[in-house]
Structures are given as C-alpha cells and as structure tokens.
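User: Second chain of the day. Same drill as before.
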Amino acid sequence: MDSDDALVPPRLQPGDRVRLVSPASFPTVAGIEEARQILSSWGLRVEAGEHALDQFGFMAGTDVDRLADLNDALRDPGVRAVVTTRGGAGAYRIVDGIDFEAARRDPKPVVGFSDITNIHLALWQHSRVVGLHGMVFGVTGEATRRALMTTEPIVLHRDPAARSAAVAVDGVASGFLIGGNLGAIAGQVGAGMPSLDGGILFFESLAGDVASLDQVLFQLTASGALDGVRGIVIGHLTPISGAVEDSPPAEIVELLQERLGRLGVPILGGLPLGHDPDPLVVPLGTTAFVDTAAGTLTVAPGVR
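Assistant: Same format as last time:
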C-alpha cells in the first residue's frame, strides 16, 4: 500500500463554503465564534452544522445528530471543507455510519485531531481521502490556513526540548503518513484499523500513567497492527492531570524506545504536533519523508 491511491481534495479558495461540525464532543459558544472569525478572516464563508453546538456541553446530543451533521457536510457539494470544532470523546461511536461513498465521490478535507483521529482513520480505510491533523486556533490557525489554501509541502522540525525528542532510531524512510492520537489508534485495532504496511505512523498522546502507555504499546505491537510500518514519528506526549509529569521522563522515553525500537525502523520524536499549546498541522494520507539526522518530517500537501 502507498499514497498513489489517495484522494487529495482541491485546495480552498476565498469565497468557498466551509462547515463546522462536532462529531466528537461540543464546544462553547465562544469556541464556535472564534473558529468562525478565524475562518472568515481567510475569505471563507462559514456555516455551522445544525448540531455543531449543544447548550448542554460535553458529550451532549445524540450519535444520530452528530453523524447527520457530518454526513450532511460530506454530501453537500457546496461545502468544500469540514472543520471539526473540538475532539473530546465519542467520534468512534459514529464511524461505521459515515457516508464513505459521498467522501469518495467528492473528496474534501476534514480538519481535526485528538478523538477526530477515529474519523481520519475510517475515511482513509474506506475512502482513501486525505485528512488534516490540526485545528484553527492560535499558531495552529495560520498553519492550517496554509495547509488548506496552498499546495506547499509541510516541513516539521524536531524540538530537542520536547519530551519525545529523545526517542530515536537513526535512518530515513518514506511512505504514506497515517495516525493521530495514540489512544484512538489503539482503539481501532480489531475495529477497522487501516493497514500500516508501507506507511509512516504518526502519533501524539494525552498520556496517563506509564503502565497505561505500556498497555497501549503492547496492544499495537502484539496485535500485528504495526507490521510493515516503515517509520514512526512522535508528537507531544501531554500529561493528563500531571500523571506522566509525575513519572520520570526517562522512564517514558525508555518505554517508547524499548517497545518501538524492536521494529527496526527509523523513529523521529519531538515533533510539534498534538495537545500542547499551539501545535502545528500535518496532512494524513499523503507521502511523508523522515530524516532523523536532519530532524525533519516532510509531508506532501494535503490539497491539490
């Protein structure tokens, strides 16, 4: 498998319609307004799905409502990009109902990260549509604008100060980039996880304790989900309520190095992707090139 069969959406143009949807959990009114203002400043026409905002907050609304909003956006030929309002939890509950034929018929970028990883993986598995791991806030907003509205390659550089930067296996590798949030990736094993054969696995994590991280890595390696992977790139390892922060960073690095180093493929940690403030953005499904000596991940554009 490679990226030759990827469906790359057209890049956005000023005046295009984009739709805000909430397929995982729901944002605040202020969050919706901030996204609307940022996207409008790019010259885009912004609209919100009927259930994009729910006054009752986190995980409110029904799976039927959230799925309907997503499918409506995928089916509407006038909508040129689908921007998720936040991650959270719940996207895995609706992935089987996504209109994959509509996604194949009219490829458009779906923007989101964290729990939205479930949707990215499902769209790649069933439709081969390229997605965008990112959001539209802060520094991320400008990075997302470039990724949606230009056809420039994305080049990310290792941050030597990042927690995951010490995880390393030297080498170079190329293949289609796939992944996202580590917990969501592991949750797809046995439930529609795409093949990683010929791919570069990217992951970031809202990490709990070291034992939980060990279980996730064991699941991925022992299940065969990582068979055929050509390289691994790692973003932020963000603590949950200080759980990982209270553990020695060396223990985390040692665990990742031991579990993933067995694969014998290049590993590049320390990339500015994930849950930390102002993470950057990366296409999912296009060809990526990892160079550990240069400390770079170069990814072909996610739009054409």
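The chain is about 30% helix and 25% strand.

User: Great, on to the next one.
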